[in-house]
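[job 0417] fold request received: DNA repair protein XRCC4
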Amino acid sequence: MSIAEIVVVDADASSASSLSLFVQCARLAAVSSSTAAIRVQLLDPPILYEAEVSSRHKPRVLDCSGVEYVAAVETALTPVTDAKPRFEFRWSRPKRTLTLMERSEFAMKFCAIEFQATESGDKWRILLHQVASQQQKERKLIDNKRNRVKQLETLLEQKKKLLETALTAKQSTEDCLIQGFCAVLNAKKDEIRRLQDEVELVQRYGVKPTTKKKPAVKRARKATGAKLTSKEEESDESSKESDEDMRTEEEEDEGELKRAKRDAVSAYSQLPANLKSSSVQISSAEDLLSSMDDIIKNEEEVNEATQRGDTTTQVKSEPVSVPQVSRPHEKKARAEQTAPPKPKPAKPTPVDETMDSEEEDILDMLS
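[job 0417] inference complete; emitting structure tokens
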């Protein structure tokens, strides 16, 4: 509910003249949804006029409903935009009538509103109060807009300062980068020019180009005490290695000796009973080896006799297993002899290897 200023044409004047009137429209409670009503106050100083516009006041010639008619009148009397108004207003003081003429190719009357003058001071007071409150609201809106404009201007100034600072920093950084790049580029150009000059010098006079020598890496020298300690450690390690080699050789020799003794014991255990009884009593490993040599010699003689065809010599053809003794003449004799087909030898008696001494085992088996 606000006051609007409208421009009207004075219908009573002989010549067309315009007047300024002030109009205020207020909605009234509707009885039903098909009806609508507004109260219009028109101020033509110094007189205040009032009128009521409702759906029943709609002319019959209008092709619209009563609600649409009231809405069209209210819109016409409260212009909001600067667009060209739909109606032209004509005001007649003697008749107290406001006529709405539609703007078209020819003037056509839309409606006519009849007002009544009011002499009540309360109506004037209410109207003036509304005008004052409206002005106060508008003043507050204007003040708020001014404050907002000031804030925006302050923000704009700060933004400009920050932008200038950022641009200055950016420019300085770019200048530093460009200077550094130019320095590197100039250094490379100088180096390329120097190398080209050296190459030309070499091509002309055969002089070797001067190349930068790399600095020799200095090796840290050990102190005399450190040398002595390293030599002592090396000598200790070599002595330990020699001791270990000697131990392994002794262990290998002992293993070969034990293996030879075991072979001799197994060979003797495979001898027949008649040879064991006629054999010399053995009391040591040396006696055993000597008796084995005699047996091998007897076998060689028998083989030679059989090859010559001598039948006078009668020897039992029982094979004797010869122990593997590491002697060269025994290996040659074994390679030369051609033994006859051997019968299946008797199973050797197991040798007890858990005794304290190998010689005791041999003596026990011989006995």
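[job 0417] notes: Confidence is low (pLDDT under 50) at residues 310-333, 335-355. Helices lie at 66-77, 121-205, 224-269, 273-278, 285-308, 328-336, 358-366.
[job 0417] exit 0
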